[in-house]
Fold:
Amino acid sequence: MGTASSQVICYSVRDYFITIVKPMRTSDLLRLLLLAAIWGASFLFMRIAVPALGAVNTAFLRVFCGMLGLLIIMAIMRIPKRFEGKLGWAMLLGVINSAIPFLMYCMAARVLPAGYSAILNATTPLMGVVIGAAFFDEKFTLSKILGMIAGFAGIILISTTGESHLTSALVLGIVACLVATACYGFAGFLTKRWIGARGGLDATKVAFGSQLGASLFLLPFFAFSAPQTPAASWQLPEVWACVLAIGFLCTALAYIIYFRLLADIGPLRTLTVTFMIPPFGILWGWLVLGEQINQGFIGGSLLIICAVWLVTSNGFSKRPAVNSVVNK
Structure:
């Protein structure tokens, strides 16, 4: 999914029917599908770029291109470049919600198929539940507990069945993905504390500031890693196509689509992109790389998707609480 930011939003029953039961416009549905397809493709692009350039180089180029793309968008949209004293906070947020997660996903791309990373990315709301309860005084509910059990059962099933038999490399790849989702979970609460509690800031500015902070954080690692990368790897056009796509398309453009959807159809409906990203990630991996899908993966994926539903719908409550999460 791009950076991650979340807010816990409570709805009355009337709000629920307005945002869910009311028919969605075809244009909104198409934009939602486009966003899921773009974020699902990010795992494919990493899977292609990382073996050639390495995890550090790919992660840095993603956030750097994302920063440039957002800067161009801000210029085209004539968004004032005043950050109201929050640029430093946005940059610090970028380390947590972009630099570290993107690096972790790039490391995972060395060993995990694109579809695996995509479905593990969907555990972000589950991590948000654990982190919220442990560090931010969020309460567990029955649905959240059931969601946690189903989610981690799904992770175990994916990692221990079929061709995906447990190996040290597979374990490290899964751990890297879970570290990334944990960072996204922290970022959701920290966005509210660092940005929202200080009067808020235009979402595009927050996204730009976070990519700037992520770029500066990864720059020293990139300066060390880049000279050690074989010159031939930098000359592969397909690799550069993936790098540019993951930066400009999966980060900059995706953010604009996401925030526009939040405004047009609301957080509750926009959140459904969480369920759509894994199928697209699996589809792109199968179409482009010929990645195979086994029964354990299908069963584990269904468990994780059910877990996300339990957590994000607040299960059996009449006032659903939703985490609006950006993954990617």
In short: Residues 7 and 192 are 7 Å apart (CA to CA). The chain is about 75% helix and 0% strand. Residues 8-323 form one domain.
